[in-house]
Amino acid sequence: MIKNIILTGVFLAADLISAQIGISRESVSNASVSLQFGDNENKGLLLPYVTDKTGITENGTLLFDMSDYKVKYLKDTNTWFDLSVDTTGNTGNTDFNIQASDRAEQPGAKVSIITADDGTDTTKGILVLADNNKAMVLPKVASPHLNIIDPSAGMMAYDTVKKQLAVYNGKVWTFWKP
Fold it and tell me: Source organism's superkingdom (predicted)?
């Protein structure tokens, strides 16, 4: 009996050490995945709303910039790339009650997903996927522009029909192919 309890504890601990997380799913699809969302649930990933991005220097950072209502990612330490401009150049100005203005940013707030954290990771961010050999898999939605009924500005999903990244800026969806 005690042997079974110890073995169960060891297996649970080994599962937790893997630092792979599935949200709305039983498990992740393979060893190269850090964070993976459920499939075909008609929900997207909502990015953090940021009012001041001047101190953000981590390449690959994704956010919703409240200064101009655009989804952006940092690609060259100081170059922000806009992912949310539609063909006319307009961006959305919408209701942002989802992240009310009375909620102060907490500079020290952080969740890190990493296989082996020795306490030296200093990457700034709300959610940091710190492994250098794993990636995040976005929520997969068939035609998110049709099936996510009430999207919020800053939402992202992978469109399984068009096979591309879908980004919602509060007004329109934009689609990006590699």
Answer: Bacteria
Taking 90 as the threshold, does the pLDDT of residue 115 lie above it? no
The burial of 142, by beta-carbon neighbours within 10 Å (0-12 exposed, 13-18 middle, 19 or more buried), is given as: middle
Instruction: Tally Cβ neighbours within 10 Å of residue 20.
Output: 21
3-state secondary structure of 97: helix
Token pair for residue 134? 């794993």
The amino acid sitting at 156 is: M
Q: What's the rounded Cα separation, in Å, for the pair 158 and 110?
A: 25
From the number of C-beta atoms within 10 Å of its C-beta (0-12, 13-18, 19+), residue 63 rates as: buried
**Is residue 48 a contact partner of residue 58, using CB atoms and an 8 Å limit?**
no
Closest CA to 40 of 137, 143, 113, 165: 143
pLDDT tens digits, one per residue of 136-167: 788 889 999 999 988 888 889 999 999 999 99
How would you label 26-56 residue by residue, b for 16+ Cβ within 10 Å and e otherwise? Answer: eebeeeebbbbbeeebebbbbbebbeeeeeb
- The helix or strand, by DSSP H or E, that contains position 14, with its residue range, turns out to be helix 2-17
Token pair, residue 148, equals 């996510």
Which DSSP helix (H) or strand (E) runs through 36?
strand 33-37
